[in-house]
Amino acid sequence: MLLFAVFKLYPIGRSFLLSLHRTTNGAETFVGADNYVRLADDPLFWTALRNTAVILAVQVPLMLALATALAVALDSKLLRGRPLFRLGFFLPMVTGLVAYGIVFSVLLNKDYGLVNWLLGLLGADPVPWLTDPLWARISWASR
Fold it and tell me: In this predicted structure, what is the pLDDT of residue 130?
């Protein structure tokens, strides 16, 4: 609840309080609801609100319908070459994870990794991030 309050409720409340002020050259002046009155009189605001409503009414149901149709199609036994379609659908997602793994294995390498090189500049000894038996025991014990 504390994290929710800090990262959600506080920014919302602070934004509302800021909306009741006008800032000029770094000085805040309380204007009350004047900003909201000015917003209601702005035709560009109403155009943006209408465009957002159209996107919400058209795009969201369309994307949900397409996603459902694709999921049903990929699960259908009538689809010829179903494993190939599944591979083509999921391969881009998995490829990114493999790339992240390779990048971090290079960054955290004990002998030539960038993290240990930066630590060496600060005078620290290299840390065996990926091969330390203590870390292996901790990670396996938590499973």
Answer: 84
Same domain? For 74 and 85 the reply is no
39 & 63 share domain: yes
Question: 67 to each of 15, 70, 84, 119, how far by Cα in Å?
Answer: 35, 5, 18, 47
pLDDT at 88: 87
Q: Which residues contact 36 (CB under 8 A, 6 or more apart)?
A: 19
User: Is the separation of the CB atoms in 101 and 93 below 8 Å?
Assistant: no
Amino acid letter for position 105 = S
Total structural domains in the chain?
2
Q: Specify which residues 24 forms β-bridges with.
A: 27
Q: What is the pLDDT of residue 41?
A: 96
Average pLDDT over residues 112-139: 81
